[in-house]
Amino acid sequence: MWDYNPKVMEYFLNPKNAGEIENPDGVGEEGSLACGDALKLTFKLDKEGRIADAKFKTFGCASAIASASIMTEMIKGLTLDEASKITNKDIVEKLGGLPEQKMHCSVMGMEALQAAIANYHGEKAKKKVEGKIVCTCFGVTDIEIEKVVLENNLDSVEQVTNYCKAGGGCGSCRGEIQMIIDKVRGKKEEGVQTVPTHKKLTNIQKIQLIQKTINEQIRPLLKAHGGDIDLIDVEGSKVIVAFRGMCSQCPTAEFTMKDVVEARLHEFVSEDIIVEEQTV
């Protein structure tokens, strides 16, 4: 279970401004159900051009709900220019902190706000318009990665994944993400090892490492959304698992199996692993 502070839990259990404004002045949508988190923000301005009301709808974990909830409180009474200056760091500080693996929820809130303001001005949100797609699993561009590295002083691929999900799918883009980090932070790109190498394992070591990866890298992600996973068997390179809880009924279970479970096992165990769901 994630170690949430009391303030995060309060905004999760008793969210402020949940819902949708009728005839809003601005609408911003961020994330997607396929990626596991989605947020819709609407706001209404008063006669002086300040945000009189703001509401949100979200599909996501406690961090996503708490981030969106406190953000709607933060922007009330602000002009759009003032609201546009709010960063994900401001949201996190107002919440008293978030687990590093959940920082992308604060980024999603900030980007939904920027999209809503752009919508008010009759513009398209700048997100994903410029730059080259680096992470095809989550549609994240090099410009977005550079921005999140600069704004949050990141220095590892794992941190980038925590903030914008880039590199959290198949893992094939991790090398390019590291190069972007090195470029932004002024590091030398030559000789940087970006993709972990896997030594040859015995069968027992392989099974132990698979179970360790499930326990430490996969299960926490699924439990954050009310799901779970069990390792059923290992047959050579084939890993058989069973989804539990919400994951067993989720329409995106196949996506989760390939782009979360299999991707993590490729990264931490072996690239030849194939994951299959237990058949009844």
Characterise this structure.
It is globular, with a radius of gyration of 20 Å. The protein is 42% helix and 18% strand. It has three domains: 6-120, Alpha-Beta Complex (Sufe protein. Chain: A); 133-184, Orthogonal Bundle (Arc Repressor Mutant, subunit A); 203-277, GMP Synthetase, Chain A, domain 3 (2-Layer Sandwich), CATH 3.30.300. It has 280 residues and is α+β, with helices and mostly antiparallel strands.
Short characterization:
42% of the residues lie in helices and 18% in strands.
Distinctive features:
single chain; 280 residues; alpha+beta; Sufe protein. Chain: A; Arc Repressor Mutant, subunit A; GMP Synthetase, Chain A, domain 3; three-stranded mixed beta sheet; 10 helices; 42% helix; globular
Output the CATH topology of the largest domain.
Answer: Sufe protein. Chain: A
Query: Low-confidence stretches at least 5 residues in length (pLDDT < 50)?
Result: 188-195
Strand order of the largest sheet: 1-2-3
**Main sheet properties:** 3 strands, antiparallel
> How do the helices and strands follow one another from N- to C-terminus?
HEEEHHHHEEHHHHEEHE
